[in-house]
Amino acid sequence: MAERTGTRTDDENLATPEAAALREAIALDERPTRPSPVSATLTFAWRALLKIKHVPEQLFDVTVTPVIFTLMFVYLFGGAIAGSTEEYLQYLLPGILVQSVLFTTVYTGYTMNTDITKGVFDRFRSLPIWRPAPIVGALLGDTVRYTIASVVTLLLGLVLGFRPGGGVVGVLAGVVLLLVFSFALSWVFTILGLVLRSPNAVMGVSMLVLMPLTFASNVFVDPATMPGVLQGFVKVNPVTHLVTAERGLMAGTAGWDDVAWVLVAAVVLTAVLAPVTMRLYKNRS
Amino acid sequence: MSDDLAVEAHGLVKHFRTGKSVTRAVDGVDLAVRRGSVYGVLGPNGAGKTTAVRMLATLLRPDAGTASVLGHDVVRDADAVRSVVGLTGQYASVDEDLTGLENLVMLARLYGFTAPGARRRANDLMGAFGLADAAARQVKTYSGGMRRRIDLAASLVMSPEVLFLDEPTTGLDPRSRNQVWDIVRVLVDDGATVLLTTQYLEEADQLADRIAVIDHGKVIAEGTATQLKASVGEGSVQVRVAEADERPRAAEVVERVLGTAVVLAPDPTALSARVPEDGGDAVARLLPALAEAGVSVPEFSLGQPSLDEVFLALTGHETQDDSPTTESEVA
After folding, report:
1. Which residues neighbour A120 within 8 Å (Cβ) at sequence distance 6 or greater?
2. Under an 8 A CB cutoff, do B83 and A128 touch?
3. Hey, how many other C-beta atoms are within 10 angstroms of the C-beta on B15?
4. Percentage of residues in chain B with pLDDT exceeding 90?
5. Alpha-carbon distance values, B52 to B14, B42, B197 (Å)
6. Where in this chain does the record put each ABC transporter domain (chain B) (predicted)?
């Protein structure tokens, strides 16, 4: 075994043009300095956008699901619940918007688990960067998907006859509030993504979380007719407050208490779940 | 702590719990890797190689023991370790959905390169690794050999001082394998330290200055390839004498110097003898002793056992053990 001293040898293997090119490419004149947390986070958000560019199929879910949900529920329940589909649409649309977007948040956990299974996350974990950057960046990238789902649902609603009294400002405020809440709720799915073993398991369990969260709320009907126990749950369900706030903002009649409730819920969710996520992320085996 | 060491580990332990049983994946591993050397960690599947490397690369926290890379503790000073270490392996992968170039640009950005700087660095590496034509293709379309090269390129974006390669050539065809070996040689020639795990004895023999043989989470032997082979004591000396009537005298000398039984070959001028454990010195004394006894020796060769034989002798089982159950399980 030759002593390796770092000096160049005349070994035939190492004198090829390829080896020379390799040397030159690997050599680094000056080491860059560590990127800021913001820069690292934005790089991961850029990655999420690149993935949308390369795998446009993933947008299928955020475009087709809202359309199916909206059409199905409006025409299925409209006549029975509100007397006419027109009438029901005014009530349902802010709710179905919330449901559509919240359903797309599960992909956060799904893609994260896929990254873990494929070993991509371990490369990120081996980098000298601000530790939450890969997760926060992915969540930021996901807000693009939520925005797309929102726009699709709203456009369809307008075509079908949804006439929000709050105007453009009210609708925009509603979308922003929804994005904030979705970002906060995504931390539930990052945890599932880190804990569960396969992307499909993440999908399954996430649906189990989302189903009661969105259906046992005021998305579809007024909770007044529900049994007491269920009403109790509906009242504390943050989705109920979110939907109430959305209806208020879009109709131009929002009370600050509902909006504030949602914002507080978003802060609490993030404050509790983000550290749990980071702990799991750091100690993953 | 020695300045001379790039990687140092003492008593590293990691167990994994599945239900009630605990698997001691790594069970007290010591390693000392000199700066600028290639260190091979050799063992079958499930021996604990990957787990050990993951601890050294700060991806796993050891349950016991300490380890440091270039003097930085892997637990207390993990970020410093991350900034000097490059990592390639089954578990540190690139994003298959992105193109090769995008992957390298992303990593360069994450190491702090400016946007144009990152693009330049990525393009340089793609070219040097023979991937320029595939730069705009998604990695999932790459062949096995290209895939391994982009993985290697990804770990070299920042020109790391210490490189961990986890089974860098598993599943590659001989040509791609040779390419990877050439890349490793260039890196080490330029002063990097490489720690590689492998199931292939030939790979360790070809690349590594020193080798640790690991089995059931423990280092069962350590040394240069030559020392490992010698420690098993199954090498043999072949001697050919000029005239058949010199053979008895030669046999007597060989037996006296080596202390092992001489085997007389069917060829009346040839004989051989096993080299005993730690018999290196004895072998060195053998030629002068033969000359002193007046025996002329036109042919003298030292046959060594292959590393396969070494592994079999050390562990009592074959190297290509694919069952994951080789990990020891204790309740």
Report:
1. B93, B94, B95
2. yes
3. 16
4. 47
5. 8, 12, 10
6. 7-241
Structure tokens at A96: 């179905």
The DSSP letter of residue B21 is E
* The residue to which tokens 């709320």 are assigned: A217
H/E element, B33:
strand B21-34
Q: How far apart are CA A133 and CA A142, in angstroms?
A: 14
- Contact at 8 Å (CB) between A42 and B110? no
How far, in Å, are A54, A55, A142, A193, A265 from residue A51 at the CA level?
Answer: 5, 6, 11, 18, 30
Mutate to test the interface with B, among A3, A7, A26 (most CBs of B within 10 A): A26
Lookup result for tokens 């080789």 = B326
- Interatomic CA distance for residues B46 and B100, integer angstroms: 31
Higher pLDDT among residues B33 and B226, named by residue: B33
A167-214 pLDDT, tens digit per residue, is 999 999 999 999 999 999 999 999 999 999 899 999 999 999 999 999
Provide CB contacts within 8 A for B46, sequence distance 6+: B321, B323, B324, B325, B326, B327
* Cα separation, A102 vs A238, whole angstroms: 12
- Residue in B62, B67, B64, B65 with CA at minimum distance from that of residue B81: B67
- List domains and CATH numbers for chain B: 5-84+160-229 (3.40.50.300), 233-304 (3.30.70.600)
Within B45-99, where are the H helices? 49-56, 78-82
* Best to test chain A binding among B102, B109, B180 (most A CBs inside 10 Å): B109
CA angle B26, B29, B30 (to 5 degrees): 165
- Residue B326 pLDDT > 50: no
User: How far is CA B121 from each of CA A6, A32, A66, B261, rounded to the nearest angstrom?
Assistant: 23, 12, 42, 62
Rounded to the nearest 5 percent, the helix, strand and coil shares of chain A are 80, 0, 20
Q: From chain B, pick out residues whose CB is under 8 angstroms from the CB of A283.
A: 61
**Mean pLDDT score of chain A, rounded to an integer?**
88
Rg (CA), chain B: 24
Nearest partner of B47 among B331, B315, B229, B309, judged by Cα: B315
**Which chain A residues are within 8 Å of B156, Cβ to Cβ?**
26
At residue B316, does pLDDT exceed 70?
A: no
Contact between residue B285 and residue B260 where contact means Cβ atoms under 8 Å apart: no
Inter-chain touch B127–A21, beta carbons under 8 Å: yes
Residues ≥6 apart with Cβ < 8 Å to A152: A62, A63, A66, A67, A100
Q: What is the ipTM of this complex?
A: 0.85
Order of strands, sheet of B270-274, starting from the edge strand that comes earlier in the sequence: B262-264, B270-274, B236-240, B299-303
